[in-house]
């Protein structure tokens, strides 16, 4: 049986570090992932209201399909400034492309934001939103161990009608190959089955990592949407008011196009864990990144990529449930 890595976190993929910064007064925060030296990366956007940065640079046909860092942030459009702070910090640290010898290095810092402006926190920041500073604080805090739940980008998140949060999970595929996911869970859809207690992701759970609850009867999915009246009452049925932001990462040697396929396959993890996903009200986005440390070879390469993508989807489903479970706890 396959097992998670030692931390069951994104940082079980060697080389990665993750940092959180949280503003409790504003009930918001930022999460930063660092990719030392720049990792091959791609992105797949399927939500109807995304808020993103540097996604065009990651298109496989372009020449900069690498990430030096990734920011997930609350704050909607204001949160995109978190990547500005990280960009400056990375350049100062000597990371990024050197276009000319007499100029600063230019790192590629992707970003995606979720809407948490209506969660009751103090958003009266005027001309000085906190996100650039939060981005730099999260960057400075990056390490291999990090908290899950209502922290960082997950601080102000909601998952349908309950508290959302930051989640992560990993899987050791053997032969040195690891895949893992990080997610900020803020969807309009529900992570729970109709009983309100069992996660849709329950078949993928390992060792009770999000409570160990299984359905008490047939796992029926007949109603296509949760209680619309309650969602409307909370202001959730508004375009751009919800989203799930995710990253899947591996130490496999993948090209830009293969990272794109990994991100596309990992989107299935949202559908396994959230019902419904990819709605007009969400900005669902999945980034994928690969360090290149483990050579997949050429014989049977497509099969290994398919296995990686399937495992990435499972990790993402588990990470979603873990994030909400930790936030509720």
UniProtKB/TrEMBL annotation:
CDD domains on file: nylC_like
Top-level taxon in the UniProt lineage: Bacteria
Coiled coil: none
Source organism of this protein record: Caulobacter segnis
TM stretches of this protein: none
Family: Belongs to the peptidase S58 family.
Name of the protein described by the UniProt record: P1 family peptidase
Lineage: Bacteria, Pseudomonadati, Pseudomonadota, Alphaproteobacteria, Caulobacterales
One Pfam family in the UniProt entry: Peptidase_S58
PANTHER family: BLR5678 PROTEIN (PTHR36512:SF3), D-AMINOPEPTIDASE (PTHR36512)
């Amino acid at each position: 049986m396959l097992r998670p890595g030692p931390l069951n976190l994104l940082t079980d993929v060697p080389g990665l570090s993750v940092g959180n910064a949280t503003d409790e007064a504003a009930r918001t925060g930022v999460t930063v992932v660092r990719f030392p030296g720049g990792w091959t990366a791609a992105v797949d956007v399927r939500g109807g209201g995304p808020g993103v940065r540097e996604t065009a640079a990651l298109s496989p046909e372009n020449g900069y399909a690498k990430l030096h860092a990734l920011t997930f942030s609350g704050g909607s459009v204001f949160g995109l400034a978190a990547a500005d702070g990280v960009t400056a910090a990375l350049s100062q640290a000597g990371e990024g492309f050197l276009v000319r010898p007499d100029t600063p290095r230019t790192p590629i810092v992707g970003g995606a934001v979720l809407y948490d402006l209506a969660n009751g926190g103090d958003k009266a920041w005027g001309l000085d939103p906190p996100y650039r500073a939060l981005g730099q604080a999260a960057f400075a805090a990056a390490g291999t161990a990090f908290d899950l739940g209502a922290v960082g980008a997950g601080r102000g998140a909601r998952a349908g009608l309950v508290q959302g949060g930051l989640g992560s999970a990993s899987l050791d595929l053997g032969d040195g190959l690891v895949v893992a996911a990080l997610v900020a869970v803020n969807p309009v859809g529900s992570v729970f089955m109709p009983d309100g207690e069992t996660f849709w992701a329950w078949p993928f759970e390992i060792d009770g990592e999000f409570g160990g609850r299984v359905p008490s009867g047939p796992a029926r999915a007949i109603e296509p949407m949760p209680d619309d009246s309650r969602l409307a009452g909370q202001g959730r049925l508004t375009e751009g008011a919800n989203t799930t932001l995710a990253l899947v990462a591996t130490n496999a040697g993948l090209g830009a196009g293969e990272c794109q396929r990994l991100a596309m396959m990992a989107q299935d993890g949202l559908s396994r864990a959230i019902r419904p996903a990819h709605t007009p009200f969400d900005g669902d986005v999945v980034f994928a990144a690969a360090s290149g440390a483990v050579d997949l070879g050429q014989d049977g390469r497509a099969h290994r990529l398919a296995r990686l993508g399937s495992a990435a989807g499972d990790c993402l489903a588990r990470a979603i449930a873990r994030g909400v479970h930790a936030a509720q706890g």
